[in-house]
Amino acid sequence: xxxxxxxxxxxxxHKRKRVGRGNxxxxxxxxxxxxxxxxxxxxxxxxxxxxxxxLPLIKRLPGKRGFINAxxxxxxxxxxxxxxxxxxxxxxxxxxxxxAGLIGSLKHPVKILGTGDVHHSLFVKTDKxxxxxxxxxLSAGGEVKxx
Length: 147
Prior knowledge:
Elements (H helix, E strand, L loop, with lengths): L2 H4 L50 H4 L15 E4 L11 E2 L1 H6 L10 E4 L9 E4 L1 E2 L1 H9 L3 E4 L1
Parallel strand pairs: 1-3, 2-4, 3-5, 4-6
């Protein structure tokens, strides 16, 4: 006989475990299920996260409630009165606000809100303005441009 005829296929071939066929088979009496208990019975399964009747971890932790909008736009907010640090007739941009330390990051768009007053004219280029901020900048003799 040739070598390849002795081995019909590559890999080990194990016989299927036949349980409940007498103690001589090694899988008799309890048929590999141990003694008593929920997992020894037919249909005895436990659901995912079951802790034997103890209050499960998923119920012990406070739930994450509410709705989180994945498409929410976060703005860096600056009030109008903070713009007084810029000299009269200067241009106010996102980069200049960042350099002045009025916003923490250039990652988010900037929105200017109307709290406070502007004392001199400024040329403001920003992503968004509130109606009161726009009115206050224009009334101080400035210009506004939304990008």
